Amino acid sequence: MEIYRTLGDDRATAREMNAVAWYLALLGRYEETIALSQEAIPLLRRDGNLRIEAAAWDTMGYARQRLGDLDGAIADYQKSLEIYGEALDGYNQAEVLDHLATAQRERGDRAGARVSWLRAADLLSAIHSPHAARMRANAEAADVSG
Fold first, then answer.
1. Chain segment 54-97, per-residue pLDDT in tens
2. What is the spatial distance between Cα 136 and Cα 98, in angstroms, rounded to a whole number?
3. Each residue of 56-68: b (16+ CB within 10 Å) or e?
4. What is the 3-state secondary structure (H, E, C) of the chain?
5. Which residues contact 83 (CB under 8 A, 6 or more apart)?
6. Phi/psi at 109 (nearest 5 deg)?
7. Cβ 61 vs Cβ 77: under 8 Å
8. Percentage of residues in the chain with pLDDT exceeding 90?
9. By the 8 A CB rule, do 18 and 34 touch?
């Protein structure tokens, strides 16, 4: 990452920042994840790399959710969904909808979680993904436990 910064390559720097942020999240270093994602997002936006910008918002949502900031996580997931929508990336929209649904369920919004899982199932069905069945099962479970 520092090499790209030294070279003045904002595109590569932002891409690497996003990758490092995800690895930090996997290590449980959530505050660092959020800070690095927040630093990367303006570079990604300026570069126009919608998919990686959307991934950065998703990563930030993951970190916030692990920290218990469900409202912040939901807002980040919604921003990620919006950007993946602009990029016409249904598969990743479905993944983010799954993340959004888990945050909604944790917050006690089972109806919202159900809607998100059903939207994910529809997107996955459209591309013939076998994961659509899991999203439908999650939506049904939200009904039963709600």
1. 999 999 999 999 999 999 999 999 999 999 999 999 999 999 99
2. 11
3. bbbbbbbbbbeee
4. CHHHHHHCCHHHHHHHHHHHHHHHHHCCCHHHHHHHHHHHHHHHHHHCCHHHHHHHHHHHHHHHHHCCCHHHHHHHHHHHHHHHHHCCCHHHHHHHHHHHHHHHHHHCCHHHHHHHHHHHHHHHHHCCCCCHHHHHHHHHHHHHHC
5. 50, 53, 54, 57
6. -95, 75
7. yes
8. 84
9. no
Count of residues for the chain?
146
In angstroms, what is the C-alpha Rg of the chain?
16
Residue 59 token pair: 């990563």
pTM of the predicted model, to two decimals?
0.90
Instruction: State both tokens at 6.
Output: 């030294």
